[in-house]
Amino acid sequence: MKAHMAVFVFSLVLGGCSGSTVQPSPTNQVGNAGSSQQATVASVESQKLDTTLTLPAQILPYEAVDIYPKVTGFIETISVDRGSRVHAGEMIIRLSAPELIAQRTQAEAGVHSAEAQLAAARAKLASDRGTYLHLAAAAKTPGVVAGNDLLVAEQTAAADNAQVEAAANNMQAARDSLHSVTQLESYLEIRAPFDGVVTQRNLHPGALVGPQSGQAGAPPMVRIESLIRLRVTVPVPEAYASGVQEGQPVTFSVPAYPGRTYHAPVARISHDINQNTRTMQVELDLHNADGQITPGTFANVEWPIRRSYPTLFVPSSAVTTDLQRTFVIRVHQGKAEWVDAKTGVTVNGKTEVFGNLQPGDVVVANATDSIRSGTPISVQVK
């Protein structure tokens, strides 16, 4: 009886166990760290760069000058004002300086005095030379002229000749002094050095001016700028400065005239990289015969960028950074590999890259630093 009861209880226990469900422990779940990651890829391409880049530029006058006086005087007349067009050699300002008239009169008197002294010295030389020649002829007859008298006459003529040379030098000095004063007087008439337009006028008739007004910080009497010929100055970044050639045509636009394009050749290359901006100044020559473009305006230049050798390009989205390094993610043997890269020019959605890459290498098209180096990659061709 006891044996049958034990068998019955054991049967109930087994029945209860067969109806229960065993839940797996979290420690038995498989992690995703070693699982592959799907990524769209693209190939590294090799090609020669030939594109344009929009660079800001400034249009400046080919010639510009601040007019300062060379002599001290009062402004008597000033015939131009801001906006006046002037021609080379045209008198624009007249100064008055009465003291220069007195200096010129004194210099002229000095010239006349020197001329008179030279004439007197020449007359005396002619007289004394005649006496010497007369005595020399007479001395050929023995006993007619004493030898000492002939020697005195010779020395007198030589001294007169020296006086004539000194008087001639004095006369030349007097004439140079007169010329100097005359030159100073010519500075009283100020003329335009080239064709252009007056952009500033800071003084008016009656103002006292002089060379000291030309010191740093003092305003000029007028400022003249050329309009017919202009300089388009382009600060070209260091990375794009190679391959620039004089005579190379360049296209640019001016915001003041939307929809219009202008053309100008490269005229001057500085061949010097500015240490502060890392740019090189390049100038275009612009002929502005109609005066349409105003100096001082800005321009947008379509700067040509060409390389004589092929470089590598990847989709722009293939270049990423983790704030410490810039890199692309190459797929090598089915795994991600970070490759440091320096970027160049971006053209049509592709970026020029420089690094340990080869044409035909496969890189992740949409790179992100979440794809760690060594991660298995399931490739999808872009």
How is the secondary structure organized here?
Elements: H1 2-18, E1 37-43, E2 45-61, E3 64-67, E4 73-78, E5 85-86, E6 91-96, H2 98-138, H3 147-186, E7 189-191, E8 196-201, E9 208-209, E10 222-225, E11 229-237, E12 249-253, E13 262-273, E14 279-287, E15 298-315, E16 320-321, E17 326-332, E18 335-347, E19 350-355, E20 362-364, E21 377-381
Compose a concise summary of this entry.
With 382 residues, the chain is an alpha+beta fold.
Order of helices and strands: HEEEEEEHHEEEEEEEEEEEEEEE
Question: What is the percentage of strand-forming residues?
Answer: 35-45%
User: Main beta sheet, described?
Assistant: 6 strands, antiparallel, barrel
**Helical stretch tally:** 3
Structural class: alpha+beta
Order of strands side by side in the largest beta sheet? 2-11-14-13-12-15
| Average of the residue pLDDT scores | 85
Number of strands: 21
- The CATH topology name of the largest domain reads Elongation Factor Tu (Ef-tu), domain 3
CATH level-1 class of the largest domain:
Mainly Beta
**Number of domains as seen in the coordinates:** 3
Q: Under the CATH scheme, which architecture of the largest domain would be assigned? A: Beta Barrel
Stretches where pLDDT is under 50 for at least 5 consecutive residues are 1-33
**Share in helix:** 25-40%
Oligomer: single chain
Our measurement of the CA-to-CA distance between the termini, rounded to an integer number of angstroms, reads 81 Å
The coarse silhouette is elongated
CATH superfamily heading of the largest domain: Efflux pump adaptor protein, beta barrel domain
Radius of gyration computed on alpha carbons: 48 Å
